[in-house]
Amino acid sequence: MAGPPNPRKLARIVKGTPEVTRVRKVTDPTSEESPVEDGWAAKSDDLAESEPLVYEGRFGMKNFVTSIRISVFCAALFTMMSGAEAHASFFSQPVPSLQNLSSELTTPEKIARYLWRHFAYEKDQTQFGAEEYWQSAEEFLANRRGDCEDFALLASALLQQAGRTAFTVNIYGSGYAHTICVYIEDGKYSAIDGSDLKKFQADNLEGLLSAIHSDWSRAAITALSEETRKGRILKLIPNKKSIKNK
Q1: Is 219 helix (H, G, I), strand (E, B) or coil?
Q2: Percentage of the chain exceeding pLDDT 70
Q3: Does residue 172 contact residue 217 with C-beta atoms inside 8 Å?
Q4: pLDDT beyond 80 at 85
Q5: 1 domain residue, yes or no
Q6: Distance between CA atoms of residues 133 and 127, nearest Å
Q7: Measured on CA atoms in the order 229, 235, 241, 243, is the torsion positive or negative?
Q8: Average pLDDT over the chain, rounded to an integer
Q9: CA dihedral 164, 168, 172, 177 (to 10 degrees)
Q10: Residue 45 and residue 36: Cα distance in Å, rounded?
Q11: In angstroms, rounded to a whole number, what is the distance separating the alpha carbons of residues 62 and 4?
């Protein structure tokens, strides 16, 4: 039976040089009695692409595993530090005005992508200590955190600035209430739901709502009330199919 590779040779294998690369299979790598299979003679070009270059023999197993763990930990730590620096750098930038932003974000696709990249979901109770608090588009731009109606209000404001027909809609169903931004393009109805673009191109608003939540019971076109910081209902929309089924 062939023996384990030389440590220097193993280091060259990891770096990708065409040395001995066949992985030895061990039933229990920590046991001295573990049966192994021969196979040290194969070269790197004999291995299938799906076979990872990993040493699994008894030689240096503890040190090898330890070094892998340290490498993974260092990589994770570096990623966290880099992410924190990027996060701090982003939030230190000046808040863009709604008007300037709308000149860049002229399509539903660009707006949805911008929301996904730069905003985070957070409940009103956590952020404001209130069950319900609707942020204006300017507030949400500054905070970068909010829930469904905040995403919808900003998306709607940006679309309106771009000259498109857009409005916010509350959807109600059994045990849920949700707010989306609805926009009309070429006579068809689609939505920006949070940071998701739902380009359903429905023939009417009821059809769009059914595509998003098939079990909706009623809906309402809404707007922000500056006085109460909540949604103000402009028009109620009953689900006629739901009423008929009852």
Answers
A1: strand
A2: 60
A3: yes
A4: no
A5: no
A6: 9
A7: positive
A8: 75
A9: 130
A10: 22
A11: 15
Tens of pLDDT, residues 131-167: 999 999 999 999 999 999 999 999 999 999 999 999 9
Distance CA 43, CA 122 (A): 54
The answer to whether the CB of 161 falls within 8 A of the CB of 99 is yes
Return the bridge partners of 189, or none.
Answer: 184, 202
Q: Rounded to a whole number, what is the largest CA-CA distance in the chain?
A: 83
Q: Are 224 and 232 in contact (CB under 8 A)?
A: yes
Which of 43-57, 66-80, 87-101 has the largest mean confidence? 87-101
CATH at residue 108: 3.10.620.30
User: Given a cut of 60, is residue 1 above it in pLDDT?
Assistant: no
Confidence tier at 99 by pLDDT (50, 70, 90): confident
pLDDT(86) > 90? no
How many angstroms separate the CA atoms of 204 and 200, rounded? 11
Range of the domain at 84: 7-90
Q: Is residue 145 domain-shared with residue 113, that is, in the same domain?
A: yes
Give the integer Cα–Cα distance in Å for 213 and 142: 31
Alpha helix (H) residue ranges in 133-178: 137-143, 148-161
Q: In angstroms, what is the C-alpha Rg of the chain?
A: 29
Q: Is residue 2 part of a domain?
A: no
Residue that finishes a domain, picked among 68, 90, 112: 90
Of residues 91 and 115, which shows the higher confidence score? Answer: 115
Question: Of 92, 99, 109, which is closest to residue 183 (Cα–Cα)?
Answer: 109
Q: Which of 90, 108, 128 is the last residue of a domain?
A: 90
Angle, helices 148-161 vs 108-118, to 10°: value is 140
